[in-house]
Design brief:
alpha+beta, three-stranded parallel sheet, Rossmann fold
Length: 306
């Protein structure tokens, strides 16, 4: 472990006497036995620390979000590619049984053509001082969305507000537009009296709700939808049938996401594989986050995503 705070290193030593500790990053990277590094620091330090590790030839695992800008994220991805190193970002939810089951349902065509992705992630606190609520909470939903949907948004409209003087935005709403008939919406807040972690994925055949706070039935699939009348006559096109079928909860593997994610990183390092949440995935999320920040500054004006 490497930390500038000696009290943190003393705690590690007390818990794990055999662990090596370093106060300076340079001293850690001088240790040739260190082949991979996990960067768990404030967001604005991700880029310089991760770049330092990659430049020293170390495989690097970075907490979410990958960096605080598209430019720095692109730089890390390019460096890792040039040096043939594993660059992985901590999109933890991709390694949960629930999100993987959602992806399985989509891949099998259980939901049909996707219409809507809607997510709410709100709670009371924890206020961050270096990033706003979008960069802190919405990054989870954007990572899940990037994993589930076989498409990337082309534009985003985002509104946010700070209710406390001198603080970053604590509540925000994001709407993302795609090239085809699909829309995504994310609501995040640090000022909610209750904690909500709920995602709706709506399709032409069925709809699924992912509630991360549910102890057992985290995913519920609803056989519900609408059918429009067929025929050239406009009167037929106005006919709408509403389908209300069964609801069922699929079995979900009881996996510990962080353990699975860590094992995946080590497997990629040992065998030269590309991580599920690689640098490219982290870059795609940062592109949306940066565009959303610009949209908030423009009071919700849509911003194209490169």
């Amino acid at each position: 472990m490497c930390d500038a705070r000696q009290e943190k290193l003393d705690l590690v030593k007390a818990l794990y006497p055999s662990a090596r500790t370093y106060v300076r990053v340079e001293d850690m990277l001088d240790d040739e036995s260190v082949t991979a590094v996990a960067v768990a620091t404030p967001v604005d330090t991700h880029y310089p620390l991760a770049m330092q590790c990659l430049a020293a030839g170390r495989h690097t695992f970075v907490e979410k979000p990958l960096t605080s800008s598209v430019e720095t994220a692109e730089s890390l991805v390019a460096e890792a590619r040039t040096r043939e190193l594993v660059l992985m970002v901590d999109h933890t939810f991709l390694y949960t049984g629930a999100v993987r089951k959602l992806r399985e349902l989509i891949d099998e065509g259980e939901l049909g053509s996707l219409y809507e992705y809607d997510s709410v992630r709100v709670n009371l606190g924890l206020f961050q001082h270096d990033v706003n609520v979008v960069w802190d909470l919405a990054v989870h939903d954007l990572a899940i969305m990037d994993y589930l949907l076989d498409a990337s948004p082309v534009a985003v409209s985002s509104c946010g507000i700070s209710n406390i003087d001198g603080q970053t935005e604590n509540t925000a709403y994001m709407t993302m537009f795609f090239e085809h008939a699909l829309i995504a919406h994310v609501h995040v807040s640090w000022l909610s009296p209750v904690k909500v972690r709920r995602t709706l994925v709506s399709g032409s055949r069925k709809m699924a709700i992912f509630d991360d706070l549910e102890p057992s039935e985290k995913i519920k699939v609803y056989d519900r939808g609408v059918t429009f009348g067929e025929g050239s006559d406009s009167r037929y096109k106005m006919l709408i049938d509403y389908r209300t079928g069964d609801m069922w909860a699929p079995q979900i593997a009881p996996t510990e996401a962080l353990r699975l994610e860590t094992a995946h990183f080590l497997d990629c390092v040992e065998h030269g594989k590309t991580p599920l949440s690689d640098g490219e995935a982290g870059l795609r999320v940062v592109r949306i986050l940066e565009a959303a920040s610009r949209s908030i500054e423009a009071r919700g004006a849509p911003v194209d995503i490169a």
